[in-house]
Design goal:
- This protein is of the alpha/beta class and about 350 residues long.
- The protein has two domains: about 260 residues, Rossmann fold; about 50 residues.
- The chain has twelve helices and twelve strands.
- Strands 6-7-8-3-9-10-12-11 form an eight-stranded mixed β-sheet, sandwiched between helices. The protein has a four-stranded antiparallel β-sheet with strand order 2-1-4-5.
- Helix 4 packs across helix 5 and helix 4 packs parallel to helix 7.
- It starts with a helix and ends in a 15-residue tail after the last strand.
- The structure holds adenosine-5'-triphosphate.
- Adenosine-5'-triphosphate (ATP) binds next to strand 1, strand 2 and helix 2.
- Pfam families: ABC_tran, oligo_HPY.
- InterPro entries: AAA+_ATPase (IPR003593), ABC_Ni/Peptide_Import (IPR050388), ABC_transporter-like_ATP-bd (IPR003439), ABC_transporter-like_CS (IPR017871), Oligopep_ABC_C (IPR013563), P-loop_NTPase (IPR027417).
- Belongs to the ABC transporter superfamily.
- It is a peripheral membrane protein.
- It is found in: Cell membrane.
Length: about 350
C-alpha cells in the first residue's frame, strides 16, 4: 500500500441505493465510488436532489426504512479494523458504537440531532462522557461550556442549562455542531452545516473544523452549495448529477480545469470569488429529469450540448484525466475537440 492508500479512512465502491415508495423504485445512487482521506476535506457539490445527502446518510447508515443499499460497499478503516458499514444493522449496537467517536454527522436541520426534552448542556455532556472525552459530569459541563463558547454562543454558562426551544435556529445549529465535534470523530460528515449562520460565525466554525482535521487526523466530507467554501476548504471535490459522480479529483484541478460539461456548466452558473465583477453567469439550460422517468444513458445528456447517440444510449465509465482526476463523459476534455474552457 502506498502512503495515499494508507491514509484512506472511508472507501465507497460502486454504491447503489434505491428508494421504494408507493411500489415505485427510485434509483437514487447509481454506482458511486470515492475515498475519504485522513486530514483531508472532500466536498460534494451538485444540484438539489442529485443524492448528496443520501450519500452522507449511507455512510452513517442513517437511511430511512424505504431506502435500501442494493449493491456496492462502504469500508471504514477504524482502530486497525476494516469495518463493512453496508453490512451492519442500521440500528444495531455496532453501528451505534461507531457513531460519535468513529463517525459523526452535522445535519442540515439541527432539530434532527437535538432532543427537545433535555437541556442542550446535558446532551453535549452525555456525548462527552459516553465517548471518554470527559471523566465526570463536572468536567463534561466545563467542556460543554467551552465548546459553546468556541461556537460563538454568548453566555454559554447560562445557555448550557437551557432547552433547544430556547435557542434560535442558528444557535441550535451551533449546539449541534458542538455536539458532533465534541467526540473528536475520525470521520466528520457535514451536510450544509452553516447555511443558517452568518458569515462571521460560519468562518469560526470552519476554523474549528480545520483544527479538528489537523489535530485529530479527521477526514471530513462536506456537502455545500457554496463554491467559495469549496475553493477555500476542499482538498478533493466530487461533482454529482442525478445519482452519479460525474467528476472527481483534486479540488484545484476540478475547479480550474473542469473536464465534464456539467461541472463546467455548474461553475459557469454561479459567481466565483476572484473572477472579477463582470462575470458572465449562464444558467444551466433545461432541468433535471424526473427520477422515475430517467434518460437511458448519461443522465446529463438531454441538457448537454456535446450529446451524441452514444451518450443517449449508455452511461460512460469512469475515465482518468490525470493523477486522481476522474470524469464520466465520452466527450471529456481533453478528448473533446473544441475546448469548453473559454
Ligand atoms: N425520505 C425520502 N423519501 C423518498 N425519496 C427520497 C427521500 N430522501 C431522498 N429521496 C430521493 O433521493 C433524491 C436525492 O435526495 P438528497 O436529499 O440526497 O438530495 P441532495 O442532493 O442532498 O439535495 P439538496 O441539495 O436539496 O439537499 C431526492 O431527489 C429524492 O428523489
Amino acid at each position: 500500500m502506498n502512503q495515499e492508500q494508507n491514509d484512506v479512512v472511508v472507501s465507497v465502491r460502486d454504491l447503489h441505493v434505491n428508494f421504494y415508495n408507493n411500489n415505485r423504485c427510485n434509483k437514487v445512487l447509481r454506482g458511486i465510488s470515492f475515498d475519504l482521506h485522513k486530514r483531508k476535506i472532500m466536498c460534494i457539490v451538485g444540484e438539489s436532489g442529485c443524492g448528496k445527502s443520501v450519500t452522507a446518510n449511507s455512510i452513517m447508515l442513517l437511511l430511512p426504512d424505504l431506502a435500501r443499499i442494493e449493491k456496492g460497499s462502504i469500508d471504514f478503516y477504524y482502530r486497525g479494523k476494516d469495518i463493512r458499514i453496508d453490512q451492519l444493522k442500521r440500528k444495531g449496537k455496532e453501528m451505534r458504537q461507531l457513531r460519535g467517536a468513529g463517525m459523526s454527522m452535522i445535519f442540515q436541520d439541527p432539530m434532527t440531532a437535538l432532543n427537545p426534552v433535555f437541556t442542550v448542556g446535558s446532551q453535549i455532556n452525555e456525548a462527552l462522557l459516553y465517548h471518554g472525552q470527559a471523566y465526570n459530569k463536572k468536567e463534561a459541563t466545563e467542556k460543554s461550556i467551552e465548546l459553546l463558547k468556541d461556537m460563538g454562543i454568548s453566555l454559554p454558562e447560562q445557555r448550557v442549562r437551557e432547552y433547544p426551544y430556547q435557542f434560535s435556529g442558528g444557535m441550535s445549529q451551533r449546539a449541534m455542531i458542538a455536539m458532533a465535534m465534541s467526540c473528536r470523530p475520525k470521520v466528520l460528515i457535514a451536510d450544509e452545516p452553516t447555511t443558517a449562520l452568518d458569515v462571521t460565525i460560519q468562518a469560526q466554525i470552519f476554523d474549528l473544523m480545520l483544527d479538528l482535521k489537523n489535530s485529530n487526523d479527521t477526514a471530513i466530507l462536506l456537502i455545500t452549495h457554496d463554491m467559495g467554501v469549496v475553493a477555500e476548504l476542499a482538498d478533493d471535490v466530487a461533482v454529482m448529477y442525478m445519482g452519479n459522480i460525474v467528476e472527481r479529483g483534486d479540488a484545484r484541478a476540478v475547479l480550474t480545469r473542469p473536464t465534464h460539461p456539467y461541472t463546467k456548466a455548474l461553475l459557469d452558473s454561479i459567481p466565483v470569488l476572484g473572477r472579477g465583477k463582470n462575470q458572465n453567469l449562464k444558467p444551466i439550460k433545461g432541468s433535471t429529469p424526473d427520477p422515475y422517468n430517467r434518460p437511458n444513458g448519461c443522465q446529463f445528456a438531454p441538457r448537454c450540448s456535446y450529446c451524441t447517440e452514444e451518450c443517449a444510449s449508455r452511461m460512460p465509465d469512469e475515465s482518468w484525466i490525470e493523477g486522481g482526476h476522474m470524469c464520466r463523459c465520452f466527450h471529456s476534455l481533453p478528448i473533446r475537440k473544441e475546448g469548453i474552457h473559454d
